[in-house]
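Ticket #4471: structure output looks truncated?

Reporter: J.K.
Steps to reproduce: submitted the chain below (260 residues) through the standard prediction queue, then opened the result file.
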Amino acid sequence: MAYETLLYEKRGGIAYVTVNRPEKLNALNRKVMEELGACFEEVRDNEDVRAVILTGAGEKAFVAGADINELAVLTPVEGKETSLRGQRVLDSIENLGKPVIAAVNGYALGGGCELAMACTLRVASENARFGQPEVKLGIIPGYAGTQRLPRLVGKARAHEMILSGEPISAQEAYRIGLVNQVAAAKDLIAVAEALARKIMANAPLAVKFALEAVNRGCEMTQAEGEFLEATLFGLCSTTADMKEGTRAFLEKRPPKFGAR
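Returned output as attached by the reporter:
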């Protein structure tokens, strides 16, 4: 499928998705959000894709936010609908069933920060900046930023970022747990690829179930989450990959997983 606002390619089991509006600092407009939704549906259904690296075109921005020209003319009803549509797209990324690594190569502000937070892991270049500056425009985060940010960094730090609207550096984002790694700009994609390959070396169904256990379990009581974990553990025990993984360990050889 061809996209107007995205670059999409597959290599070695990794799907590379790039928001491609560098002249607008990769700002998220309705077209970008529609295409992100369609692209991640394609990724979800492609059995050859084991992991995704999501980044932005150019050297300045991952995604510098939403397109202000569109935001400025929204009615209240349109505003709510826009927020709900965006939340659905980002939910689909978070719950893809495959690891999605955000390679944050510059500004990740507003909707860009929210997009990065919907990814499984975040690798940032040294010049990256993260922020939720919506209050400076008279609005609040609308793509689940008020929900994902406190879950990632805690309520107090989330309050500070959201209420001040001030961006933070990649190093500060790493310190508070918002990003997993910081890399030199020239090494960013290579670092993201290395992380993807570490995950891809493991059993695909186990990775999928582990993602589900963490994502859904975080929204449950501990007892409910433990029950979900036990259920998914049981499912893993029925797979050919589990038999291969345990046999390979006992035979002291690398496993050959087949996603079965």
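Triage note (M.O.): checked the attachment and the full token line is present. Residues 8 and 181 are 24 Å apart (CA to CA).
Status: closed, working as intended.
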